[in-house]
User: Fold this.
Amino acid sequence: MNRRKSMTRAALIATLVLTAHTAAAGLAIRFETDAVRISGAVRGGRVACIFVDRAPLNTYSGSLVAADTDNDGEVRVAMKRTLSDRAVWAAVDLETGEFTAATAEGTVSNLTFHGHSFRGNGGDVKQLESQDFERLDILLVRPHAGAWTISSSDGGPGDSDRQEDRKFVLDVESMQPVWQAFGPAPRKFEKGDVVVLIDPSTSDIYVAGVGR
Assistant:
């Protein structure tokens, strides 16, 4: 009986995430000298973004929500610093859950989730486990609801086991809202969520759509 329950849980978690994705055809990111332009979004909607820029003298990272205030399906995010050729950005449409990612070389067309998996107990999937990562910047987007983020290291405050063991386990409730109006983080992952991770030491990016 216990074995059957374990198999059921494993099957459930396996169906929660598609491990490889093609970037959304409509949503696109274009780098400018001092700005990032995101097109193909829902007109009048909002786009959640996460980025890392490993500039020569420092690494800059962050997350934000940009609104399409002129209703043309495009947002422009002005930057205080000139973008380097190591910058990587991901954007998720808060209305549709469509996502895309780009570097200075163009769109990242094949986005995997290698090294990451969801963990849960029964029907509740509350944790994200990442193997062999020292630090991660993470964005969770729930369409029509909000966006939450966290930046933490192996053994740091965001790691539930608080041990430096090359295994980062994130409790989804420990994430913080990108915009205060979104409120506290969800208690668990749900179908339709989009999860984006960036390794700031390498600029590698990983994306999963839950239940897709």
Remarks:
- The first strand starts at residue 20 and ends at 22.
- The chain has a mean pLDDT of 86.
- The radius of gyration is 17 Å.
- The first helix runs from residue 2 to 16.
